[in-house]
Write a structure and sequence with these properties.
Number of helices: 14
Distance between the termini: 42 Å
Helix content: 40-55%
CATH architecture of the largest domain: Up-down Bundle
CATH topology of the largest domain: Butyryl-CoA Dehydrogenase, subunit A, domain 3
Number of strands: 8
CATH superfamily of the largest domain: Butyryl-CoA Dehydrogenase, subunit A, domain 3
CATH class of the largest domain: Mainly Alpha
Oligomer: single chain
Bound molecules: flavin-adenine dinucleotide
Largest sheet: 4 strands, mixed
Low-confidence stretches: 1-13
Structural class: alpha+beta
Strand order of the largest sheet: 1-4-5-8
Number of domains: 3
Radius of gyration: 22 Å
Mean pLDDT: 89
Shape: globular
C-alpha cells in the first residue's frame, strides 16, 4: 500500500518504523528458502557493528578499498567470494536464483559494495579468453582479493567513443612497450593489476587495431595521479604509461581481438546483478531523513504531500525494476539484442532513480546539508547514529556520475532505440 496523502500516524510515532514497501513475494523452494536463511545468518555474524558503521559512511560508487577488501576477505573465508564462479576457480557456483537472493540480502543489509573490476570484469574475461597459464596464475587470486584490479579503458577523447583510444602498445620481440594514458581509472591507486585496451595497429578499421593487455601496476614507467571527485572523494585517477614493458604472455586473446573482448566485458558491467534491493535501501535512507530532519519551523519533509507523492512514484519505479530483474531471472537471462536493450533500460532506470533519491535526501535535509561533515566522513569520528546526514551531500554529488560511467545515458538510449527499431 502506498501512502499518497498525509500520514499523521507516521509522523506522530516516536520510534521510527520503516513504512511497508511494495513487496514481491517469491515462491521459493524449501532449498532456496534454506539458502536465504543461511545468507541472512552469515550477514548477521560477519557484518559486525564496526563494519556496519564503516559501510554507512561510504558515499562513493564502491566501498573504499580497505573496507571492500575486509568484506571480501570475510566472504571468501566463507566460500562466497565469487558467487557465480565455478568452484574450480574459488567460486561458490551459486544457481542464478541463489545469486539473486544473495545479492538482494547483501544490498538490503547495506553490506560494502566491493569494486567489481576483478570479480565481474577481468575474471569472466580470463575464463572465456585467457590462456590456461593466465587462468591458473590469476583467477584464484581474484575472489580472495590478493590481487586488486582496475580497468584501463577510457582516455581523454575516448570514453563513449572508446574505439578512438590512442594508448599505444608496440610489440618488440616478446614484449609490448606501452605509451599513453588512461583516465577515470577507478581505484588505480589501490590496484596491483590493470587490464587495459591498447592500440596495436592504426591500419584498417579503428576497432580492429585494439588489443586487450594486462599489466602489473608496479611495472616501471606507470604513474598514477589522483582525481578528486566533487565531494572530495578519491576514487578515480589518471594513469600514465611511459615505455612500460609487459611480456606478450600478458596479452588476452589475439592481437586485434580487444574490441570483441571489451564488448563481452561491458555486457557483464551493465547487467547481471540485482539493483532493486539497493534502490530500496536508498529509498529507506531518503525516507528516514525526511522523517527525522526538521526545518527551522519544525516541519518535516515527510509531512509534505508533494514530497510523499514523489517518493511514492519512485517506489513504483523500483517495483518495476524488480519485476524486470525477476523476469530476466525466470527467463534464464536475456541474450543478443534483447539482452543488450534490457541491460541498458535497467542501467537508465537505476542510475536516474538513485539520483532522484539522493537529491530528495538533500532536499529533506535542507540547510543542514550545507554543514561540512567531511571530518566525520573521512576520519571516522564517533558515530552518533546520524551517518545519513554525513553522507547525504557526498552521495548526491557522487551519484551524478552514475549516468556517465558504465556507458553514459545517451549511449544507453541509443542501444535501446537501435534494438527497438532494428537498425
Ligand atoms: C566515477 C567514474 C568512474 C569511472 N571509472 C572508470 C574506470 O574504472 N575505467 C574506465 O576505463 N573508465 C571509467 N570511467 C569513464 C567512463 O566510462 C566514461 O566517463 C564514459 O564512458 C563517458 O565518456 P567521457 O567521459 O569521455 O564522455 P564523452 O564520451 O565525451 O561524453 C560527453 C557527453 O556526450 C554524450 N555523447 C557522447 N557520444 C554520444 C553519442 N554518440 N550520442 C549521443 N550523445 C553522446 C555523452 O552521453 C555525454 O553526455 C569512469 C567515469 C566516472 C565518471
Amino acid at each position: 500500500m502506498i501512502g499518497m496523502g498525509k500520514t499523521p500516524s507516521l509522523v506522530e510515532t516516536t520510534n521510527y518504523q520503516e513504512p511497508p514497501v511494495i513487496k514481491v513475494e517469491l515462491d521459493l523452494s524449501p532449498e532456496d528458502q534454506h539458502f536465504r536463511e543461511s545468507v541472512r545468518g552469515f550477514i548477521r555474524d560477519a557484518f559486525t557493528p564496526e563494519l556496519q558503521q564503516a559501510a554507512a559512511r561510504q558515499a562513493g560508487v564502491f566501498a573504499e578499498p580497505s573496507l571492500g577488501r575486509e568484506w571480501q576477505r570475510r566472504l571468501h573465508a566463507h566460500g562466497w567470494g565469487a558467487p557465480g564462479w565455478p568452484k574450480r576457480w574459488g567460486g561458490a557456483e551459486f544457481t542464478p536464483i541463489q545469486r539473486y537472493l544473495f545479492s538482494v540480502e547483501c544490498a538490503a543489509a547495506g553490506t560494502p559494495v566491493v569494486a567489481g573490476m576483478g570479480l565481474l570484469m577481468c575474471g569472466p574475461v580470463l575464463m572465456r579468453f585467457g590462456t590456461p597459464e593466465q587462468q591458473e596464475r590469476l583467477l584464484p587470486r581474484i575472489p580472495s582479493m590478493e590481487d586488486y584490479w582496475c580497468q584501463g579503458f577510457s582516455e581523454p577523447g575516448a570514453g563513449s567513443d572508446l574505439s578512438a583510444l590512442r594508448c599505444r602498445a608496440e610489440r618488440i620481440g616478446e614484449e609490448y612497450v606501452i605509451n599513453g594514458s588512461k583516465i577515470w581509472t577507478t581505484h588505480a591507486h589501490a590496484a596491483n593489476w590493470i587490464f587495459m585496451l591498447v592500440r596495436t595497429s592504426s591500419e584498417g578499421k579503428r576497432k580492429e587495431g585494439i588489443t586487450f593487455l594486462l599489466s602489473p601496476m608496479d611495472a616501471p614507467g606507470i604513474t598514477v595521479r589522483p582525481i578528486a571527485s566533487m565531494s572530495g572523494e578519491h576514487e578515480v585517477n589518471e594513469v600514465f604509461f611511459d615505455n612500460v614493458r609487459v611480456p606478450v604472455s600478458l596479452r588476452v586473446g589475439e592481437e586485434g581481438q580487444g574490441w570483441d573482448i571489451a564488448q563481452f566485458l561491458l555486457m557483464n558491467e551493465r547487467g547481471g546483478t540485482s539493483a532493486a534491493a539497493a534502490l530500496k535501501n536508498a529509498l529507506h535512507r531518503t525516507r528516514r531523513i525526511a522523517w527525522r530532519e526538521r526545518d527551522e519551523r519544525g516541519r518535516r519533509a515527510i509531512e509534505n504531500d508533494d514530497f510523499q507523492r514523489r517518493l511514492a512514484a519512485i517506489e513504483i519505479e523500483i517495483a518495476a525494476v524488480e519485476a524486470t530483474e525477476l523476469r530476466t531471472l525466470i527467463c534464464g537471462g536475456l541474450s543478443g539484442a534483447a539482452g543488450m536493450a534490457s541491460a541498458s533500460i535497467q542501467k537508465l532506470k537505476v542510475s536516474t532513480t538513485l539520483q532522484r533519491l539522493a537529491e530528495m535526501a538533500v532536499e529533506a535535509l535542507g540547510p543542514a546539508s550545507m554543514r561540512d561533515y567531511r571530518a566525520q566522513l573521512y576520519c571516522g569520528g564517533p558515530d552518533d547514529g546520524m551517518a545519513h546526514r554525513e553522507t547525504a551531500v557526498a552521495r548526491h554529488l557522487n551519484v551524478r556520475a552514475a549516468t556517465i560511467f558504465g556507458g553514459a545515458s545517451e549511449i544507453q538510449k541509443g542501444i535501446v532505440a537501435r534494438s527497438a527499431l532494428g537498425i
